[in-house]
Amino acid sequence: MNRQWLLAARPEGSVKPSDFRWQESSLPELAQGQILVRVIYLSLDPTNRIWMNAADSYLPALPLGEVMRGGAIGEVMQSRNPGFAEGDLVQGLLGWQQYCVSDGKGLGKLPKGLPIPFTAFFGLLGHIGLTAYFGLLDVGKPQPGETLVVSAAAGAVGSLVGQIGKIQGCRVVGIAGSDEKCRWIKDQLGLDAVINYKTEPLPASLQRHCTKGIDIYFDNVGGATLEAVLNLINLRARIVVCGMISQYNAARPAPGPANLANLIKERARMEGFLCTDYSDRAEECFTQLIQWLMAGKIRYRVDVVDGLENAPAALNKLFDGSNAGKLLVKVGPEPGPLRAV
Amino acid sequence: MNRQWLLAARPEGSVKPSDFRWQESSLPELAQGQILVRVIYLSLDPTNRIWMNAADSYLPALPLGEVMRGGAIGEVMQSRNPGFAEGDLVQGLLGWQQYCVSDGKGLGKLPKGLPIPFTAFFGLLGHIGLTAYFGLLDVGKPQPGETLVVSAAAGAVGSLVGQIGKIQGCRVVGIAGSDEKCRWIKDQLGLDAVINYKTEPLPASLQRHCTKGIDIYFDNVGGATLEAVLNLINLRARIVVCGMISQYNAARPAPGPANLANLIKERARMEGFLCTDYSDRAEECFTQLIQWLMAGKIRYRVDVVDGLENAPAALNKLFDGSNAGKLLVKVGPEPGPLRAV
């Protein structure tokens, strides 16, 4: 038997339970070339909300009635594909379901025997690591002594960006939405200053903590935060456009910042990117991240919700800010201790 | 006697006559190191409006009561500065006045004997040429076959950008505000398609003329045009942020485009620049522009308003779109035929 969440409706505003439909069905026989994957962890990410819309995004729109799209890690249970063996661990768009039947395209195999917890494949590595690492280093190009501001700074990507910024010698100012999150990124992750945007006036706090202006802004949220940052950018500032979570639930798109002309005044650059652009450099990134992790230079945390049935409700945690760290849904048990290959 | 326009008030919205004050005064004796320059042509540019505001821009705000700031070309009439001789032609921020007393700092000497009309120093070369040439080539990085959209396409900068885009092998779509301007840039300058944004629905017309999407947008206007373009950008599109004339007269800044998240989807870049960043590469630019002019590959036109007294009223022509080509104020007679040095 398979258990699946199908996309039932296009959400208006926040995701509602009725936007999904639960389906139980029997598993089909594998055809030649197919594999059967048991999903272990499902990754919940702000971009999932974009995937529910009727319009194409950087991926084609998901038709109604299909299994909800989602990044996941799983274990190959059966294989009729010479590229995969029973017991292989794979990562890719396995979807919101207990089992995925796949032709293997787009799935990456995970290495075994790494000295990291299993959840690190999502908390530190995978799309989160690629996004933080290349977004900051390749698009943001941080220099020692520069001021880096990161929004959603306690989130999965943001918390890594802040720490990598510190390693690069930047002064890092993090914006987050609770005192607990602010304490974590300041006391545990070592950011230089933090702003709780829900309790502080953002423009004034930014000004207070960025007395030398802002050289790099790693933008996860868009909206009013972007506008406040644009007022403080320095000459040749870089705005790394990673996400605009403040916009994703909007029934109609909110207007953008009124001060884009500051890009001219400061000869600044705003640039969007996707982690998938860097898939072929994943090894370079993951090797470095694991090295930093082992050396105690970076930390991450995961927020694990138990049970596939809870995925729809859990998704909203990303938007109300109630998650603490990388949000995952545990769909099935972790495999036994990972053996080195 | 000198005649000057002083900045009398901070304009609200469009510039009014009362924002300036006319002053006639006698010329001071030159101190050691100073030169006296007779202004010949005063350049009127959209950015002049920004300079009238109380806030600093890329230049410090101009205090009320000072001579209005303006780029100009003039002739040295007297010199107590060893760097300048009587008869030298100079270019720089000489201001809205008949005579400028200067220490020579920031003034560039113009070459003599070039096979071009005197007004070409503003219509083709100078800050206009630098802006169009480096903005498009250095920031926009056009490739043959790409689609380039340029707004204010019949303006001084825009009309050069469109032609340089054609020379680079781009398909060029120009947006302008009158049928006459559209005819000029299509029939005389050779743009591939034109849109009169005052009589056509911009989003639909853009879509019709950019069937392969937009690779480069040279933005002179900001506002709704930028939003319409962002909906059609291609993967790795470049938005060259040169100006945002639609915003300059706004009493309070208008909101920006609601679709900035398209920068992520298309991994696109928005980048501001100023021509002054390229001053040290001026020779490379001017040599090329003159070569293209001689070869009949580019054209320009100037709109000359006679008399310094008409400068304030003329400035608004840039904002109501009634100028045809580079807007200049003729303050004094051109020097005799330029002798080769």
What does this entry show, briefly?
Helices cover 27% and strands 24% of the residues of chain A. With 341 residues, chain A is of the alpha/beta class.
Descriptive keywords:
globular; 341 residues; six-stranded parallel β-sheet; 12 helices; 15 strands; Quinone Oxidoreductase, Chain A, domain 1; alpha/beta; homodimer; seven-stranded mixed β-sheet
Describe this structure as you would to a colleague.
Two copies of one chain form a homodimer. In chain A, helix 4 (156-167) links the parallel strand 8 (147-150) and strand 9 (171-176). Helices cover 27% and strands 24% of the residues of chain A. The first copy, chain A, is built from twelve helices and 15 strands. With 341 residues, the first copy, chain A, is α/β, with parallel strands linked by helices. In chain A, helix 3 (126-140) packs across helix 4 (156-167) and helix 3 (126-140) crosses helix 10. The first copy, chain A, is globular. The A-B interface holds A 57-58, 222, 226, 241-244, 247, 252-274, 277 and B 57-58, 222, 226, 241-244, 247, 252-274, 277. Strand 13 (269-272) of chain A pairs antiparallel with strand 13 (269-272) of chain B, so a sheet runs across the interface.
